Amino acid sequence: MNPHCARCGKIVYATEKVNCLDKYWHKGCFHCEVCKMTLNMNNYKGYEKKPYCNAHYPKQTFTIVTDTPENLRLRQQSELQSQSILRPNPGIMTENVFFF
């Protein structure tokens, strides 16, 4: 039995079949999600099981780290350390004392 195209849903015959991204495609249906440029096995980039050309491949960006309990603890510890460094300790003499 012949598979169905991931783009158009029609049957894909062996002469026009592209097997990529764990799916089957017609050669003409295997194109960039953004600009519709026809792709092949040498010039495509897959992202979330969808084909993209090099120009439109989604860029990986950093995400904001959520306030997990561990991150909150580390932030609090860092703030406490910063405060103890910046605040003079009343038990320590801050004047310069020279002994001769």
UniProtKB/TrEMBL annotation:
Gene3D superfamilies: Cysteine Rich Protein (2.10.110.10). Residues 3-63 form the LIM zinc-binding domain. PROSITE patterns: LIM_DOMAIN_1, LIM_DOMAIN_2. The keyword Zinc applies. Keywords: LIM domain, Metal-binding, Repeat, Zinc. One of its GO terms (molecular function) is actin filament binding. One of its GO terms (cellular component) is focal adhesion. SUPFAM superfamilies: Glucocorticoid receptor-like (DNA-binding domain). InterPro entries: LIM-SH3_domain_protein (IPR051759), Znf_LIM (IPR001781). This is LIM zinc-binding domain-containing Nebulette-like.
